[in-house]
Write a structure and sequence with these properties.
The longest helix has 38 residues. The chain has 236 residues and is mainly alpha-helical. Helix 5 packs across helix 8. It is elongated.
Length: 236
């Protein structure tokens, strides 16, 4: 009962904010190219969906995001595990990892477009790069968070490295890994949109760029709303 009441209050708050926004734009006479009213935004969204413009580009962006997330997190988990379990691997690879992490991914996006073209591949690679580091860092921290006394106890019981990993270190690291996955999913969406901004044939980011040239601010707001809802769903 309490959950239903809280949900109703949340919807009421959203309705009040939208109503105040609509009233402010109307009373202040703010031009639509500066700040469109919610009614204009929802109208643009409706026409975009009915005319099958938004769904086509939506599925492209969603595909890029999910593929980039899968590729980036898989590589991040494998490399993070190697670094966490092997001091030799850490010694040789970690400086390169830190240097690459410090490099702004937005600056890499144009190069990725040049190397891999305007199609799906470049967007997936950019999304994977952005999603890679949160999970890799969390994997390393999580696997190393296992107490040394417990590891020594398992060794004294003749447990192998594989048994220690699967029975102690990995279960202990799962909260860190899932926290990294949560961040990586949103970062993958951001990476895909950034790549579409730089150069794309399809996708919601490309659509926003096109609307920007046409001064269709209501359309841009409607796509931003779709991306926000998509991010909320993916985060869940």
């Amino acid at each position: 009962m309490g959950g239903t009441k809280n949900f109703a209050l949340r919807l009421l708050l959203i309705a009040v904010v939208l109503g105040a926004w609509e009233l402010l734009v109307s009373l202040a006479g703010i031009p639509e190219y500066i700040l469109p009213a919610p009614s204009s935004i929802f109208r643009s969204m409706y026409f975009g969906i009915v005319n099958n413009i938004y769904p086509v580009h939506f599925w492209v962006t969603l595909s890029e995001t999910l593929l980039g997330f899968l590729v980036g997190t898989l590589l991040a988990f494998m490399l993070g595990t190697l670094v966490a379990l092997s001091r030799r691997v850490e010694y040789f690879l970690y400086p390169f990892i830190v240097m690459f992490q410090a490099m702004p991914k937005v600056a890499l996006a144009p190069l990725i477009i040049v190397w891999f073209g305007l199609g799906l591949t470049s967007k997936v690679i950019n999304a994977a790069l952005v999603a890679f580091f949160p999970l890799m860092v969390n994997t390393i921290v999580g696997l190393r968070s296992a107490e040394e006394d417990r590891i020594n106890l398992m060794r004294s019981l003749a447990a192998s490295r594989t048994q220690i990993f699967f029975m102690l270190q990995l279960p202990n690291a799962l909260p860190y890994i899932f926290a990294g996955l949560e961040i990586a999913m949103i970062f993958a969406l951001i990476g895909a949109i950034v790549a579409e901004f730089v150069g794309a044939e399809r996708g919601l980011g490309m659509l926003i760029q096109s609307m920007n040239f046409n001064m269709d601010v209501a359309g841009q707001f409607s796509i931003l709303l779709i991306l926000s809802l998509l991010g909320l769903v993916l985060n869940g």
